[in-house]
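A brief tutorial aside. Many learners find it easier to grasp structure tokens once they have seen a single protein encoded end to end. The record that follows does exactly this for Mg/Co/Ni transporter MgtE. Read the sequence first, then the structure, and try to relate runs of similar tokens to stretches of the chain.
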Amino acid sequence: MGTRVYLARLAALPVFDPNGDRVGRVRDAVVRLRTTNRPPQVVGLVAEMALRRRIFLPIGRVTSMDAEAVVLGTGMLNLRRFEKRQNELLILGDLLDRRVTVLPEDGEGAGQTGTVVDLGMELNRNNEWLITRVAVREHTGRLARRGHVYQVEYDRVRGLVGPTDAQGTSNLLALLEQMRPADMANALQDLSDARRNEVAAALSDRTLADVLEELPEHDQVEILARLDRERAADVLERMDPDDAADLLAELPKAEQVVLLDLMEPEEAAPVRQLMSYRPGTAGSVMTSEPVILTPDATVAEALARIRNPELSPVVAAQVFVARAPSATPTGKYLGMVHFQRLLREPPAALLGGIVDNDLDPLRPEATLPEITKRMATYDLVAMPVVDPAHRLVGAVTVDDVLDHSLPRDWRDRDAPDDEPAPGETAVILPRLSDE
């Protein structure tokens, strides 16, 4: 293990146990504040395990940290959900992007202001990891280019521990944007309400839309309410129509009307349609934008469409075939072709000749239990939904079914933990000490 470790660089690194099995990923580091101006002590890491559970890893359990991974030594771990104590701060959540003042080396003068971009810790003679170095980006006052980054000793920095209104977002955003939307949403839940709203507002419309789809409903509503209405409408346009409809359904009726009117008509139309269906039915949970092609399209065209990296795996798993128009509601629905079938057919083959039409599509009023049984019976990841005129109006995907079958608070980090799984009880211990 190196003598100095920079903590922001540990974010998202995998954590392995002594046998080489992955435990989770690093999401933050925990420091304990100490008296006077003594450097904070790093007491552990926060790791995210399966099912988004975040646990505390005592720093004494870590045997190595490098640019590739964090490795733990032998010993028991507390598998209870991590909770920050009163005298503790998180590196990424609380200290990164802080506006600080760096005192001159001679101690004279007002000092130079800057923003914290990383913190370095070192091991002292007592085997304690202490914050000893701070990487700061200077404030130049020139918009044309950013100030350079330099390192200083911890004792020359003032304002690192203080009010959160002196904290920006740029460096935290740089770390978050390396994560998947679900992980980014999970990280936002660790932040204070004010910090979370500030970071969310700084995201691009596309990224914020992806993150909102992964957040609990109350957080979605809170973040959207903090945006001006024009920006909120722009973000809703970039969400999947079914997710936008679910979010709008949580808002007061008057606010729904305002936001839908601010959206582009072609973006608002499918959302309005989805909101017209009764909750808990195929119509209310389906996506209105599956991959749809006409029967004279070729296998090569279909493969090109499902290669689109912006499509989710379940949406890209099949192509629905219908007569023109190919936007929902389409012409007469003819059937679907799974991507595995596409891979087995000649590129020039027409979809109309290989379409699978032996499964009855769903009607918009089909209930979730009925949908679940049908999909489980035929091992499907998506099913078409047609109206009485047999026009395709959307598709229900397995992630839609899961999302609406799980408890409403399943995305919420504050929701109570399930009972420990068999085998976990032997390692669940109260966090009585860091070791």
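Self-check: The chain has a mean pLDDT of 86. If you spotted this yourself, you are ready for the next section.
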